[in-house]
Amino acid sequence: MPVRIEGPTQFNLLAVWACHSKPNSFDEAGLGPLRRALTAYRGFIKQLPTVIVGDFNDNVRWDRPTKPNNHGTNVSELTALGLRSAYHHARAVEQGAEPEPTLYWRNRTNEGPRYHIDYCFVPESWTKSISSVTVGLFEDWVGLHLSDHVPLIVEVNP
Q1: Which of 102, 111, 98 is closest to 135 using CA atoms?
Q2: pLDDT tens-digit profile of 111-146?
């Protein structure tokens, strides 16, 4: 969902929910929802500084050579657009090495399957202005049955 943010700092926001489990999740070329959105909204992304944030439903841990929708490929395309993952920049961790999960899958317990699949990509020039990146606590979100995800909160003053 493309949104124009007006205020002291104007920027574009592309909100993402990349669902890979529906029959129409991939096009004929095997491109998934994020890559299709990056193609469709390329002009929008280039108009103003852009933040791309949301549930990407992906992680480089699941990348495979024959899989057309690899997260690493998506990250490379975002990097080519001048965007950086706020979490990975602030935490100085590589993609796939995230110690904090954002999704508590299936049984929604702290001991069950947990993955980092939510991201916030900001313009590279904003990375110097990131004041904090916080991952919500299991107890406050999943434990209270509000979601199977916890929020990823990025504070930046561009």
Answers
A1: 102
A2: 999 999 999 999 999 999 999 999 999 999 999 999
Q: Which of 90, 120, 84, 89 is nearest to 102 (CA)?
A: 120
Q: Measured between alpha carbons, how far is residue 20 from residues 11, 70, 84, 108, 113 in Å?
A: 28, 12, 23, 20, 18
- For the chain, what percentages of helix, strand and coil (3-state, to nearest 5) are there? 25, 25, 45
According to the model, what pLDDT value does residue 27 have?
59
Q: How far is CA 82 from the centre of its chain?
A: 15
Phi, psi dihedral angles at 135 (to 5 degrees): -105, 125
Which is nearest to 127 in space by CA: 98, 77, 89? 89
The predicted model scores a pTM of 0.93
- Residue among 118, 132, 122 nearest 84 (CA): 122
Distances from the Cα of 69 to the Cα of 29, 48, 58, 90, 152, angstroms: 10, 27, 9, 26, 23
Residue with tokens 């205020």: 7
Q: Where are the domains of the chain?
A: 2-156
CATH of domain 2-156: 3.60.10.10
